[in-house]
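Re: the request from the purification team.
They wanted to know what the chain is likely to look like in 3D before they choose a buffer screen. I agreed to run a prediction and write the result into the notebook, where they can find it.
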Amino acid sequence: MAIPPSETIARIESDNTRLPVTVVCGFVGAGKSSLVRTLVTGRTSGRVALLVHDRSDAGLDRDFCRSQGVDVFRLGEVLAELVQRCVGCSLRDSLTSAILAIADMGRFDRLLVECSGLVEPVLVAEIFNDAWENQEPLAAKARLDHLVTVVDSRTLWDDLHAVDDLQARGVSCGTDDGRTISELVVEQVEYATVLVLSKTEGLPSGKQRRLRHLLEALNPEAVILSMAEESNLVGRILGARTPDSMPISFQPGWAKLIQGEPMPAMSSALWTMGVFRATRPFHPERLWDLIESDWPGILRCKGHFWIASQPERCFSWEQTAGARHFECIGDWWVATPRDEWPTGRAFEAELTQQWSVEFGDRRQTFGWIGYRLDAVAWRRRLQRCLLTPSEVLEGESGWRRFDDPFARAIAHADAHDDGDAD
């Protein structure tokens, strides 16, 4: 992400009038409103605005909030009352407009945003980060201090392993919302600056340790707090981020593993993590068979891969304990005309590091986190999916004749999307 010119940084850093924003996310029923109530009643000074982005009637009572000196706005009402815009706008546009409208009032010391349980925190971070990069008005009027995800200590482990989607739970954003429970709760954990554990009362100590290990592995950079045990919960959440003027960046556990960054040391041998790397392509049938089989012990696996039958395409892979997903995200640079390559030393250095004489920048790279996982056996299963030396010698013309379940799955998904459009 590009950084604005130095004069812009100086102007924003010296501007103490920007409204500090704390965003509270978390899955449905995790305890967001309970945390917000604690923040509202526990703060020692300042005028607070609370912006509620929720499709239900749940949340804090307006009269209670007014008694605490807090003004409450709901996202749709903010749009209607303050900026006279359509309530059907996208989350990005509507949230940006609402924050700007509240900031322009000039009478609040902080804004709390309670997001719907279906919101992925990274989308909120992108609103602020893009405003910074593009020098939009939001960057000059508000700053994002923290993205807080409330974690339900009693359900997270089961939700991580859940195979059902949001629609099956009756909490989706609509018929076109195909996200799974497992994927959403993991994304909410990975993209947060603060993780707050709720409902820990009576939870066995062993399960609490396992939960903390999980959170540390998924998001090594986040501060982990307990709603029931943290003595300075309000201060640590409402305190300004340092440096507060810079965009929020995230490096989840799987990304740290791929980049070779340090990870938290696990006190239990039940936890394993690592990286799978290879340059040879996967055989499409063998990899598909592996995908369709059980992967016992894998809690998180994410990265990129290529298959011999589609050698120009780069695929992304994303897996939780309860869900697996792949998609084509474009072509490898080796399959892209050179006049379309980015310029600059950073790109050249990264490409040189990744380049192999035989396959260019094409490679298999997965960062993974496991619990009670036979890591040696799992690596062997992946290795057996790679082309054998004799298959490599067949070349791309031979590879393209392999039976390709991935191509059929993509064609089926495209046909389904076209049918929905009609």
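For the purification team: The domain at 12-250 is CATH 3.40.50.300 (Rossmann fold).
Please add any questions underneath this entry.
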